[in-house]
Amino acid sequence: MVSDVDDEQALIDALSRPDVTTVLGFANAHAMNLVAANTDYFNALLATDVLLRDGSGMAILFRRLGLEPGLNMNGTDFIPKLLAAFKGRRVAFWGLKSPF
Q1: What is the CA radius of gyration of the chain?
Q2: Mean pLDDT of the chain
Q3: How many CB atoms sit inside 10 A of residue 11's CB?
Q4: Residue 33: how many CB atoms within 10 A of its CB?
Q5: Which of 73, 84, 85, 88 is geometrically suited to a Cys-Cys bond with 16, CB 3.0 to 4.6 A?
């Protein structure tokens, strides 16, 4: 759970260490619908090193479960900050288009 900007910066610092490879994933409402019917996708999300909440649908889910949702860590907000931490270094980011 990334609860505030200090947590976010600590995560960016941890993810941008040059000696560590990390699998980062995002879980949004669509992903939750997919995992209900697709065990492979569920296992792929569980296999990530870091899984971040993405979107208001997940915030609603967290609140319905009585949990604090923390910051919305979606790709359009978080990824540019993470990329900035890699300035001057080589980095690989990839996604996929799959029929999950």
Answers
A1: 14
A2: 88
A3: 19
A4: 11
A5: 85
Task: Tell me which DSSP letter residue 48 carries.
Answer: -
Q: DSSP alpha helices (H): ranges in the chain? A: 5-15, 29-35, 39-46, 56-64, 75-85
CA distance 71 to 7: 9
End-to-end CA distance of the chain: 25
Under 8 Å between Cβ of 61 and 53: no
pLDDT in tens, 72-96: 998 788 889 988 998 888 877 676 6
The position carrying tokens 């990839």 is 94
